[in-house]
Amino acid sequence: MAHIEVIARGAWIERGQVLLCRNVAGEFWYLPGGHVEAGESAADALRREFAEETGLDPIVGPALLIMENLFHDGRSRHHELNLVFHVEHRGKFDPPLPVPSKEGDIAFDWIHLAAVIDLDVRPTEVRAWLASGGAIDPSATCGWLSSIDAR
Fold first, then answer.
1. Is residue 91 part of a domain?
2. What is the domain range of residue 135?
3. Considering the domain boundaries, does residue 129 fall inside one?
4. 144: which residues sit within 8 A by CB, 6+ positions away?
5. Does residue 67 sit within a domain?
6. pLDDT tens digits, 76-92
7. DSSP code, position 114
8. What per-residue confidence (pLDDT) applies to 73?
9. Are 68 and 145 in contact (CB under 8 A)?
């Protein structure tokens, strides 16, 4: 593990459904987004990733959650800091209207929040957070989740 990856992700929740990105080969889901590049704000990175992956230009709202994640993908260990933002579509957009994928190895699915708990959503802390409605403590500026054992 050579470095910590910074990733901007979007929580787009409409009418009790959340937009999730699906890894087609692995059949697991995660919040849409991608790596923040040097010199780029996390919100700009999220807009760029949405445009590259879907062709959409969402409104990126406030940060909802900072999530730390440590995992092994079968080849190497990864340490991520995921910055999760509220996302909205510009104009009217009612799920389950499909969100196109411009990349062959991913797809986008609208999933009912109650059904998220039965899917392989990664990291698992996000699955629990989404299944509970994606709520954040209103007294906090931003929530924090960690999959790292705090020994």
1. yes
2. 4-146
3. yes
4. 65, 66, 67, 68
5. yes
6. 999 999 999 999 988 77
7. G
8. 85
9. yes
pLDDT score for 140: 61
For the chain, the domain total comes to 1
- Quote the strand ranges of 73-142, DSSP E: 77-88, 106-112
Whole-number pLDDT of residue 103 = 96
Residue stretches of the chain with pLDDT short of 70? 1, 95, 136-141, 143-151
Residue 61's CATH number = 3.90.79.10
Closest CA to 62 of 124, 138, 125, 148: 138
Pairing of strands 59-72, 143-146: parallel
Please give the model's pTM, rounded to 2 decimal places.
0.87
Please report whether residue 151 resides in a domain: no
Give CA angle at 125 (129, 131), nearest 5°: 30
Question: Where do the H-state alpha helices sit in the chain?
Answer: 42-54, 124-131
Cis? peptide before 96, omega within 30° of 0:
yes
DSSP symbol at 123: S
Measured between alpha carbons, how far is 2 from 92 in angstroms, rounded to an integer?
Answer: 43
d(CA 102, CA 53): 5
C-alpha to C-alpha distance for 34 and 5, rounded to whole angstroms:
10
